[in-house]
Amino acid sequence: MWRNIARSAAASCLRRSRRFSTAIPGPCIVHKRGADILHDPWFNKDTGFPLTERDRLGLRGLLPPRVISFEHQYARFMESYRSLEKNTLGQPDSVVSLAKWRILNRLHDRNETLYYRVLIDNIKDFAPIIYTPTVGLVCQNYSGLFRRPRGMYFSAKDKGEMMSMIYNWPAHQVDMIVITDGSRILGLGDLGVQGIGIPIGKLDMYVAAAGINPQRILPIMLDVGTNNQRLLEDRLYLGLRQPRLEGEEYLSVVDELMEAIFTRWPKAIVQFEDFQMKWAFETLQRYRKKFCMFNDDIQGTAGVALAGLLGTVRAQGRPLTDFVNQKIVVVGAGSAGIGVLNMAAQAVSRVAGNTGASPNHQFYLLDKDGLITKERKNIDPAAAPFAKGPGEIEGLREGASLLEVVKKVKPHVLLGLSGVGGVFNEEVLKAMRESDSTKPAIFAMSNPTMNAECTAADAFKHAGENIVFASGSPFANVDLGNGKVGHVNQANNMYLFPGIGLGTLLAGAHFISDGMLQAAAECLASYMSDEETQNGILYPSIDSIRHITAEVGAAVLRAAVAEELAEGHGDVGPRELEHMSKEETVEYIIRNMWFPIYSPLVHEK
Ligand SMILES: NC(=O)C1=CN([C@@H]2O[C@H](COP(=O)(O)OP(=O)(O)OC[C@H]3O[C@@H](n4cnc5c(N)ncnc54)[C@H](O)[C@@H]3O)[C@@H](O)[C@H]2O)C=CC1
Ligand SMILES: CC(=O)C(=O)O
Ligand SMILES: [Mg+2]
After folding, report:
1. Using one digit for the tens of pLDDT, what is the confidence trace for 230-261?
2. How many other CB atoms are there within 10 angstroms of residue 266's CB atom?
3. 159 classed as catalytic
4. Is 211 left (phi over 0), alpha (psi -120 to 50) or beta?
5. Is 202 noted as a catalytic residue in this protein?
6. Where along the chain is a divalent metal cation bound (predicted)?
């Protein structure tokens, strides 16, 4: 049943699109001239404007005379990046990472085509800068780093104005929006307006992985205040200096923004990102049938984790039906942890069929107060289905510590989404040596790196060399000596959200169904070969992120078609989508991915 999905046709199609400017790009209409173009990163080519274009666009004399090719500009940027790496050798990690972020950000501000080209071609090196972990550091220092705005900012003070404000955005068409209220940025807590770095980083991944046109993306910060006292007292803080809105007041502001977005762009897709748990669940429930939206922390993460959990069953050389026997301890009962458990429970029901057995007996859920049981006072309704009943686990009480749980349960999988760095300490990891699995799995999924439940090196050192390891932020593979290497997987929702967005967009679906999300997870789960999973490789390398995104996008699109949710996109109607084979759907997706090359600019008044 596990197969490598037709990777080759799609891969060669992607390779073709990687060539430097041999294809003749279509023209791009621009409504400005002269210096205004040079100052617009969407259109700017810096020294790359050919002489004829300089004449046509009133640029003659505004640039040095020599025309530099795209390849040459690319090489020049990479050279300065590499010399920055050399010059910062030995400096603290945070200084180096921020310096790298700055040089990339300056390019982003100046010339988007070149920026996205270097990002796509060097995604393994640059994802840790524009995405986790460095994006966390950028958010923490945002007010100090701020030079110019990116995206849109709506605040509690804009109530009643949002419908008109949305028209201030210069692009006529927007496909993909990522929105945050900054209340739970990675594992760093409430960062208020500074959380805008997250939508920006996620949308950079949309361009790099899914080929969404950067002129059609929109990062949004909804600033409803912050409860972070340090920020409220920081004189450089750029957000509203007031406590967060709560209750109906909060919801009415989000309602207004959603109405404004979908009034102007009825076909846009909105991704909610890094909302604190109560609002993450509440807004998902409130909007998911009304608007085309999803919550990445709940739904994207769940799919990636499920793919990893199924991968660990395969890694043990067991049939997938064995998933129902895997004992899984989830540490962190927040939006991500509960999202994972809900999706895993659905998968168990599918695998087990209607046996009448309690579907959740194999799951153990802990939060900051330890093991969650039915005795828990004021239990969160979202956690309740996973709370252990009295007597269900002999010798384990309400609030039992993680170490007690691991020792008693001997889980196959230990999965962290707690946001707490180091919570999988030496004792806990050593206890995993007694796991009932031949290949115990440790998922330290919290971000950024400092907040990972354990490091890769500690996991292999303390839990043993036979483990399968995954982390939310990247770690280098671990040298186990004797020529052996402990493989480090990156279990991050970046493997799914770009495909969910792109597949939904090209399907022209009005909402994102459970079936579409399940198709995305199954696609990722089946992407790796048996041999790869048995070597502990559960996810593809980030180098192939465009390819996996094309596959995931196709799976999502086909699920939308099967559920009759697809209304088509552009010239391609639902009937044509219906008649596409799986391979044709992948090719259709790839053909629709934007790729950064300089297009001839044509001026139109
Ligand atoms: N790798 C990935 O793709 C993703 C990773 N994450 C990461 O997961 C973390 C949590 O995110 P959310 O669930 O949205 O946060 P959340 O704030 O909703 O939940 C955090 C949960 O962890 C629990 N917790 C806190 N301290 C604990 C401790 N010492 N032991 C056990 N549990 C503890 C809390 O009680 C709460 O239930 C963040 O660090 C985030 O970056 C989130 C989404 C995707
Ligand atoms: C990856 C992600 O979405 C998070 O850490 O919140
Ligand atoms: Mg997130």
Report:
1. 999 999 999 999 999 999 999 999 999 999 99
2. 10
3. no
4. left
5. yes
6. 273-274, 297
